[in-house]
Write a structure and sequence with these properties.
By secondary structure, this protein is of the alpha+beta class. The chain is built from seven helices and seven strands, in the order βαααααβββαβαββ. The radius of gyration is 21 Å and the shape is elongated. The chain binds coenzyme A. The site of coenzyme A has 18 residues, from strand 4, helix 6 and helix 7.
């Protein structure tokens, strides 16, 4: 297995890291769809729409079309959660990576490289905490599918942990969704703990049971 090393982001990585980030997020919508269509409340809605259409129109075809529309709308809502998050990120912090991560105090952006190819990425940015605790957010972690399972994700997280310790942060926080099972597994293995769950600010996330998780890794006792 070829070796990789972790280094600071440079401008020539720009298009590759944006692409790796976008793919790493949008790949999860099939998992989210499966979850949505496993929810009893969704099947109750589908049945109710079918029966209502049947009673009001008397047409089996119209009722089936109504059910198909429900499936389509729920699918599009799910897919849109991932794609609108990517669009927003690419148009904000990921638009000028150098300025937003390398030219600001307490921030950083790293990539993992193997034989001249980018095989992973991660970023760190100060996270405002109402209690005044000095926290850093781990974000934009992604490893292309063909390079997974080689310890790159873990090494990138450890790079952030190391950076946070050296920078004097008290804790690392991060946000991921329940559907990103590989990342949930990875963060738990590294000792991160879930401190809160919430429904992201998109339409119907509660109905779709689209749960986001906040993880925290405390550094205070290590200093
Ligand atoms: C989460 C992610 C970065 C993990 O990257 P990775 O390089 O595969 O992670 P590692 O190789 O360090 O493995 C970490 C753990 O996940 C397991 N794992 C995850 N995906 C695996 C795969 N495809 N094959 C084998 N093992 C895998 C490893 O076995 C390891 O578990 P262990 O510590 O119990 O042995 C990667 O799956 C990814 O980019 N996902 C899409 C983007 C994403 O969701 N990012 C998180 C944003 S919050």
């Amino acid at each position: 297995m070829t070796e990789y090393h972790i280094r600071l982001y440079k401008d020539s990585d720009y298009h590759t890291v944006r692409d790796i980030f976008a793919r790493g997020i949008t790949e999860h919508y099939p998992v989210a769809l499966r979850h949505t269509f496993s929810l009893p409340r969704v099947w109750i809605l589908v049945l109710a729409v079918f029966l209502l259409a049947l009673v009001t129109t008397g047409s089996f075809i119209v009722s089936s079309v109504a059910v198909a529309v429900i499936f389509l709308v729920l699918s599009l809502i799910n897919i849109n959660i991932f794609f609108s998050y990517v669009r927003k990120s690419l148009a904000t912090d990921m638009l000028d990576i150098r300025k937003n991560y390398l030219q600001r105090d307490g921030c950083c952006f790293w990539v993992a490289e193997s034989e001249g190819e980018i095989v992973g990425m991660v970023a760190a940015v100060p996270f405002p905490h109402p209690g005044g605790q000095n926290q850093v957010e781990l974000r934009r972690l992604s490893v292309p599918k063909k390079h997974r399972g080689r310890g790159i994700g873990k090494a990138l997280c450890k790079t952030v942990i190391d950076f946070a310790q050296k920078s004097g942060y008290q804790a690392i926080v991060l946000d991921t969704s329940l559907h990103q099972m590989d990342s949930v597994h990875l963060y738990k293995r590294l000792g991160f703990q879930i401190t809160a769950t919430y429904y992201p600010n998109y339409y119907f996330t509660k109905f779709l049971d689209f749960v986001d998780l906040i993880f925290q890794y405390d550094l205070v006792k290590l200093q």
